[in-house]
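RECORD CONTENTS
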Amino acid sequence: MSTTVAVVLLLALTAYAVFGGADFGAGFWDLTAGGAERGRRPRELIERSIGPVWEANHVWLIFVFVVTWTAFPEAYASIWLTLFVPLTIAALGIVLRGASFAFRKSVESTRSRRAFGAAFAASSVVVPYCMGAVAGGIASGRVPAGGRAGDPVDSWVNPTSVVAGLLAVTLFAYLAAVYLVWEARGAGDPALEEYFRRRCLGGAVAAAVVLVVGAFVVRDDASYLWDGLTSRALPVVAAGTLCGLAALVLLVMRAARGARLLAALAVAAVVVGWGVAQWDYLLPTSLTVSAAAAPSGTLTALVVVVVLAAVLVVPAFLLLYVLDQRRMLPEEGLEEAPVPER
């Protein structure tokens, strides 16, 4: 039963990376879009694309926390006691990002919009970096078992965490750019389509560089993870690499539909590959999945709740995404119009 729950947890993390990660990546492109006039059209497309779904995508993160706390309390305690600094920064960043995104659409002053936009964009980079740093601290064995606190600095300021943080930022930016190419095509804007297509290629190159450098870092700093990546997780790594390369080919050929699916699979393969590589440890190499698991009665009840939640919630998610893709949801905020400085 503990294995079943661990697989569900990994799938939920993957869903958050594919859906929520694209939201964070869109914030990265918001940050780098340029000044108010130069970046106006890209930012408008970004707002339209993530506006209806960004709140819903965080349900996956809440699900991950609740499942981990319920099913693997010892691991949950150790992770929070050790990595409370980056987790707290990420939590505050998510709140600041959401509030800024909502307020930017509801204020009239250009100065206020710029301030809220800067907060939204900066948080969109800080949050995924911190989450990647948390993953790196866990994967490199810097979180002790037994509900004990590890080093609050070295646990997330270390080579593996830095690489994982940069990888999260670059992968999410790449994924968001692929999605935005599709959004620009649906909006009938060839100029924006080409704008984000170029950023797809740049994001893919940046992510590839981080992956190559990261391979050497992980080999020296997280030996158990490296051994798993080069053995049991190797098929997942190979599949993800092929998906990423195929997505690039389709982007060059301007086939946005297929590229979107393949890019999502490539990002999903990174998360799944990490989980398979460190199996069967939750905290390499000190706490296995079975040792960390709650009593069987708790796990059984949790699985029942997860099944019920899937039956009730997943159809609602699918409906939301379908309506969003068909542009059948109302836009929020004020109508765009020139406003005087205040």
Notes: The first helix runs from residue 2 to 31.
